[in-house]
Amino acid sequence: MSAGTDAVSAASPRRWRTFWVLAAAAALTILDVSKLGVALPAIQNDMGGSPATVQLMLVGYTIAYAAMLVPAGRIGDVLRRRTIFLTGATIFVVASLAGAAAPNVAWLVTARIAEGVGAGLLMPQVLGIIQRMFPAGERAKPLAALAALTTLTSLVAPVLAGAVMDLAGDAWGWRLLFLITVAAGVVIVPLAAMLVKEPPTTARRDFDRTGAVLLGAGVVLAIAPLSTSSGTLPSDVWPYVLTLLGAGLLTLFAFHERRVARRGGEALIDPALWRLPHFGPGVLVSGCMHAAATAGTLIVTLAYQQIAGRTPLETSLWMLPSACASLLGSWLASRVTSTSGTAVSAGAALGALALGGMGFAFAAAGAAALPWIIAALLGVSSFGSGLAAPANQARTLLFAPGHRASIAGSLIQFAQRTGSAVGMAVALIVYYAFFTRPTFAGQPAAGPMMALWTVAAMLLAGAAIALIDQRRTRRTAGRAETTPEAPLPVGDALADTGAGGMLRG
Predict the structure, then answer these.
(1) Which of 209, 305, 389, 447 has its CA 20 to 30 A from that of 155?
(2) pLDDT tens figures, 33-51
(3) How does DSSP assign 54-119, residue by residue?
(4) How far apart are CA 302 and CA 399, in angstroms?
(5) Using an 8 Å Cβ cutoff, are 285 and 294 in contact?
(6) Residues 66-92: what's their mean pLDDT?
(7) What is the mean pLDDT of the chain?
(8) Dihedrals φ, ψ of 143, to 5°?
């Protein structure tokens, strides 16, 4: 064992135990993205507040999460990822406790934003540590397993929330959802402190503060105004002005990063990452898939209660089979090829067709048959997500060099969280804009119909990007798929030999 190798990487059982602790922490952050969708009506009844304020409680977490990811990824690359992970996890748990004890909506919104900050700090370190624990030839399996777990968590969250709300009641149920996170965190944080080990980084320690400010401000301004519009297009001009300003700041950030890199500085996002095989397309595909997954689950959850008249527990039970279908898809993806481009494009396309079918079901199906049809199609959509998400994450991060592990991981997470925020915002706008209108078949359900068709278009875009990337790979590399055994880029090869600080197993 070389001097740069620690106990985690030297012993496989220790390495996998560490992986599952880190994966559990990642799953908690995903759980908090979607668990409160079922509880939103109860929170508003219990706490009061305008729909926009309650919606900010939902999307404020996601926006704060997204805004922190890239700066936290860079911080993890220049400092010790273990320290940043434990800091973020502690903030996350303490903020969850504050949410459970919230006396009013303002307190609750603040707690949710603080939770997002903690999640944004810890999540890039999870991916960075995993990439350093496993050599490039072994990364596909843990990365695919992590993606499968987080996808499953996003599907199980509404089921868990519905059961808790039904058993504990509206007044205490949503508080108990926060306490479940606290209880899990109290176990995970000490385990991580004992298990996670990491040698000092060899990365340069300069930090692009200007880039971090531009990116954070751009994300908040671009997403927050429309995300808090209470599901209807705002009539005032200022939300649109702020959104355009945010888009302008993000454009300025991109130019700033290129200039920093040309001058030999250390950019917040190394432009060389976008030249890695599959990285750029994979980031886009991940954003599309998470936009569709989060928004689709939210719309179905709301429509089951507001259109079909189901209780939170009934809603969660009708959605339970989708979690099993997601597991089946993830298992099949691992059996075929964990980095298969075919699995990504086929799974995303299958999910898009199922979401479109759900829109038709809300438009034309009878009340008795509707839950059965939606449950079946949701299962098909979840199977597609389970097939596509693990393969896409492993494929995207396969060639990321060790000294860029956290920032590479944070970029794919950034795409997922911004995709979720944008997906929820757009879907809710469409859902409520058409909420009271009849469908082409006369059903009073144009809201879920149009929203689900919009969500299906997001996922179809992801399938198209994956397919284009796969075909381009075949043309340029002369092989059908890039596999973990493929030759590594020079930077990664150096990292695996110790020059870049990569841990070897």
Answers:
(1) 447
(2) 777 777 777 787 777 766 6
(3) HHHHHHHHHHHHHHHHHHHHHHHHHS-HHHHHHHHHHHHHHHHHHHHT-SSHHHHHHHHHHHHHHH
(4) 40
(5) no
(6) 86
(7) 79
(8) -65, -40
